[in-house]
Amino acid sequence: MAELLRMENITKSFPGVKALSNVSLDLNTGEVHALCGENGAGKSTLMKVLSGVYHAEEGEIFINGEKVMIENTRRAHELGISIIFQEFNLCGHLSVADNIWLDRQPKNGPFVNDKQMFEKTKAILDDLGLTISPKALIRNLSVAEQQMVEIAKAISFNSRILVLDEPTAALTESEIDRLFSIIHKLKAKGVGMFYISHRLEELTRISDRVSVIRDGQYIGTRDYKDVTIDELVKMMVGRDLTDKFPLYQRKIGKLLFEARNVHNKRVNVDHIEVHAGEIVGLAGLMGAGRTELARAIFGADKTTSKEIFMDGKQIHINNIDVAIKNGIGYITEDRKRDGLALNMTVERNINLAHLPELIKGGFIDDIAAKKNALKFIKSLNIKTPSMNQKVGNLSGGNQQKIVLAKWLCNDIKVLIFDEPTRGIDVGAKFEVYELMNQLSDRGVAIIMISSELPEILGMSDRVLVMHGGKISGELSREEANQENILRLAAGIKEDERKGA
Amino acid sequence: MAGNLDASKAIEARKAKQSANLTETVQKFMAFGVLILLIILFGALSGGKFIAVNNLLTVVLQITPYAILGFGLTFVLITGGTDLSAGSVVGFGGIICAKCITQGYGLFISIVVGIAAGALTGVINGLVITKMNVTPFIATLGTQFAFRGLTQLVGAGKPVSIQSLENKEIVSQFKFIGGGTVFGKIPFPAIIMLVLAIIMGIVLAKTGFGRRLYAVGSNEEAARLSGINVFKTKLLAYVLCGATSAMAGILLAARLASAQSNAGTGYELEGIAAAVIGGTSVMGGEGGILGTIIGAAVMGVLRNGLNLVKVDAFVQMVIIGAIIIIGVWYDTLRRKKQNSL
């Protein structure tokens, strides 16, 4: 395989922080080169240097052995470099074709040649084996389809170098399969790809080589077939992680939480219960109604019927306030969208769900608020320069800990985690798991919604699987395995399988 | 070795943070700096006329209604909303208060009724926005027309005059509220503005309600899921905005001893401009009362100063417009810089 790209001794600083120091990396044609590292390690910064968003103070970039200067993103496009970020750069109100050819539409004089544009789009989509209509509006597409459009756009630029930043974060298993088949097609065409992901399991299926960056330093590159996940994790965190999940003997207490007949448009659940100190995993495919169930229990969404019991006593949660007062917390799936106020400070976010206790006669008790924030910054090991830092400036792992702190402030009895470790790095994941164990130790009943099967299997005492708004099955820790969960998640009944 | 590295990193980070904090503080007081600069500039250009105490007090009196209505608007802007009906409520509050006085109610009661009328318009705005889910811009654009119409109806299209009342005592009391002086030459409305600024500033910075306002403006869904009553918080912001607008209207009516049915036209934009120049974000989640006062002062000083140095009135409008844009542009730059850190 020929060398396609070489980045040499890239150094980039931000005020007070050396984001990258002397990082060198190369990419061959038709190769998938995985890039691993904890959040804030410098992967994204490096990719932004490659795409002309940032300028490195030092270092050189060679494409096909020729030295190039990438002054801006336009130049990067000309050189055949495309990045697909986690957040897509698509215009929701425009069609697929309009998005792909944005500002480069084929023209007839001053007019856009729609016919030609749709034809060219169709050719690219067909080539990728996609059945999306070129005329479909972006906002009507699923997240996975939007991502495919981003890839099609990159192809339309004749990109030879493609960077995929956490492409599977929001995809379901079958969508991931489709993405990987496209990645294999691109490989066959000689496109070189950098692939950034926190999901180490999936790298096995596509990666040729893997490089690790830690704290802005290049740690090493390995052929993927020669490396174990444990070794990789060790490279990433700089220490041995004996296990991805903390070993723990949980003590399960009395029945603490019970929900019966929770019904609304998207949820149809007759009964779930959680004991004190128990972690119940809630598995299922996207759209199975897990988040909707959590929101219904928590009083965030309307229900047509709902009976909630705490300690055997019925409570009427008709709004969120009541849920919180009764010690129920809900850690949302998307912390940026609905978990944190990003332009508010660490202290204010930590105390957000805790305001009623901090207010004395209408006034905030500043000293108590600061004390409380400091307590959680210490106990959860939140890495922030100060409690007055804006939350938006912190890494994903630290943001997640702040969301956690927000709920731990209250006298919490039942905590619902919705995708507790999405988009956070291995080290922070481990800390979140340990925290869940500590909570369980204190007798908190935990419901954990997760799309990551290893997480469900590693943490749950019991697994509930949802399908189409209903609980399609319950598995004990012993019964639970990938196959059983996926079968229930797909809605396949036990007896059907036996019959087959 | 690793420990040393970490330590030196921590020091580096702290230094960066300190310098970032410093620049942020400097930038925060940028509007204040501009204000001082303008005062010095006009002082020099007008040959001292501008900085004569009498003239400065005139400026203060002039900005009072804008600033007071600006306080309420600041609350609304922080929630991520806006209130285009504030100017109409200036007229409405003033005319209701004046009407009460002419009907023979006491001064105190009339003022309370006027402010309550303003608060009521806020309830309407708040309900339309939260319960009917109409975007604040459109909702208050609609109520801007509606409240102006109500004002005209109450006054039957004519000003409601206090001056011509038989009860001369109440006339002079009312006029004192609008233009009297205390402690020598200090205009009474300026005292009201100051007291209001302090109260509302404290509410914003120190109370649970203040925090809820910022939280709602910063991320409404996160606030809601944290148990904050978003409806109540927003409603109260609009109620306060209505009340402060009415206060501004009452002061205006008192100064002239007459409530004009077209009073306050366009004031909402003055108030928004003052808040925005003072660093309040129209995107919500950021802002403060001190900034709004400074913003109102910048506008007032510009107007008065440009008059004194005999700049054409139309040119003045161009200059003030440019200042608003530059102020917001600068703020956007600052924010961008902060976010890229």
The total of beta strands of chain B comes to 4
Structural class of chain B: mainly alpha
What is the CATH top level name of the largest domain in chain A? Alpha Beta
Radius of gyration of chain B: 22 Å
CATH class category of chain B: Mainly Alpha
The computed structural class of chain A is alpha/beta
Q: What is the mean pLDDT of chain A?
A: 87
Number of helices, counting only DSSP H or I runs of 4 residues or more of chain B = 14
Major sheet details of chain A: 6 strands, mixed
Distance between the termini of chain B: 28 Å
The percentage of residues in β strands of chain B lies in under 5%
Shape of chain A: globular
| Distance, first to last CA of chain A | 46 Å
Could you tell me the strand content of chain A as a percent range? 25-35%
Structure description:
The complex is a heterodimer of chains A (500) and B (341). In chain A, 34% of the residues lie in helices and 27% in strands. Chain A contains 19 helices and 24 strands. In chain A, the strands form six sheets. In chain A, strands 6-9-10-3-11-12 form a six-stranded mixed sheet, with helices on both faces. Chain A has a six-stranded mixed sheet with strand order 18-21-22-15-23-24, sandwiched between helices. The C terminus of chain A is likely disordered. By secondary structure, chain B is mainly alpha-helical. In chain B, the strands form two sheets. Chain B has a two-stranded antiparallel ribbon with strand order 1-4. In chain B, helix 3 packs across helix 9, helix 3 packs across helix 12 and helix 12 crosses helix 13. Chain B is globular and about 60 Å long. The N terminus of chain B is likely disordered. Chains A and B meet through helix 10, helix 11, helix 13 and strand 20 of A and helix 1, helix 9, helix 10 and helix 14 of B.
